[in-house]
Amino acid sequence: MKLVDFHSINTEQKANMRELPGKLKEIQRKKIQQIIKHAYETVPYYNNLFKKHNVSPNDIKDSNDLHLIPVSTKQDIINAGDSIISGKYQKTDLNVRSTGGSSGTTLVFYQSYRDGVYAGVSYDRARMENGFNPLFNKIVFIGPFKAESQHQLTLKEKIDYILKLRRTPILIDMADNQVKTESLLSQLDYDSIKGYPSFLYLLAHRVKSGQLKMPALKHIFTASEMLDERTREFINQTFNADVKDIYGCWEAGCIGWECEKHEGYHINIDFLALQILGTNNDSRDYGKGNLILTNLNSYAVPFIRYQSDDIVELTPDLCSCGRPLPLIKSIMGRRDDFVVLTNGSKISPAGLLVVMHDFSNNVKEFQITQEKIDELHVRIVLMDITHQTRTEDEIKSGLETHLNDIDMKITVTTVPVIEKTRSGKHKSILSRI
Fold this sequence. Notes:
Elements: H1 2-16, H2 21-42, H3 44-52, H4 74-80, E1 95-98, E2 108-111, H5 113-128, E3 139-143, H6 155-163, E4 170-173, H7 178-187, E5 192-195, H8 197-208, E6 219-223, H9 229-239, E7 243-249, E8 253-257, E9 265-267, E10 272-277, E11 283-284, E12 287-295, E13 306-318, E14 326-334, E15 339-340, E16 346-347, H10 349-357, E17 363-372, E18 375-382, H11 388-403, E19 409-414, E20 429-431
Parallel strand pairs: 3-4, 3-5, 5-6, 6-7, 17-20, 18-19
Antiparallel strand pairs: 1-2, 7-8, 8-9, 9-14, 10-11, 10-12, 12-13, 13-14, 15-16, 17-18
């Protein structure tokens, strides 16, 4: 039954990519009605939420009506406890999932096998639409796998990949020591790789300097962190392959993905409904703001009008590639990535990343943190400390020029290492204001 679920869902997503935009909106409309009805009838949290705000499932006809439902935050879902789990499922039959906790709060939730297949297939689409063939291409996944090293896939898991017509991926834990990781990457047989931009950037530096040899790559996929243009360009040039960025989260699966045109992120609207929450808490279909998502395939624990904390820009434009999916024009970062100036205005992390990448020839890693509104602290890891003081002074000057805030005190400190988040992510910018 589980294998049938996978192949039927995989066939469904492939067929949807051949549909016209109007047909995809109709598929989305039906799925919205189904998940709303399911949540109201079987999930105590949503039943109470709907009744409290006088919302009936009959009021929600399509994505235009979703604004009638209040937004739920990560903390709301945490506080709901087991009342967020659908009564149609036994908790003991569900798989436990958890978010990375890079925002400071980890959400533990539950997922049925079918819900998980939809999430997995959403990522498959992103790779396959970019030419990756799971039957013929061999991919390395670099991430925080902990005990799930490449040598510990069970026989059942390997058979599952074979029955799904997929080659078994190689899993490398980025928490392993550098010697072990680089030894695996230099010896294993693969032609594709997926990992955090910051980690692939460091690998590219090792390859560029001749300290690491890797096989020729056909496909490079980045995920889980912001990918700035200079990091993209360096990875592209080093490996002579076109980086495709994939945007997603545990609660929703793959939200959007780049194609060869790089005109934005194709939104999987047959899997999700997205909206923007403006500065006045008004819901909009397009523009810049806090991303609000509704997962159309998560039935064990529904995520309806869920606040992601990511700041994005949605556009009505379609990509010139001709695919029928609408676009996220840009991903500007999480809310805690934006530095707040002393006058209250916010600075996008994109500009700060540009300033810092002017020093990428010697700065291996960096982190900008803001604990107070009038203080900015920059920690850097240098490749060569010969010109440490000069580098620190030049970074300070560059940021002062960019921010143009005379009341902002900026300090730059060289450190041996910068700690990563619990999920292994590198947070380049973190504001606690």
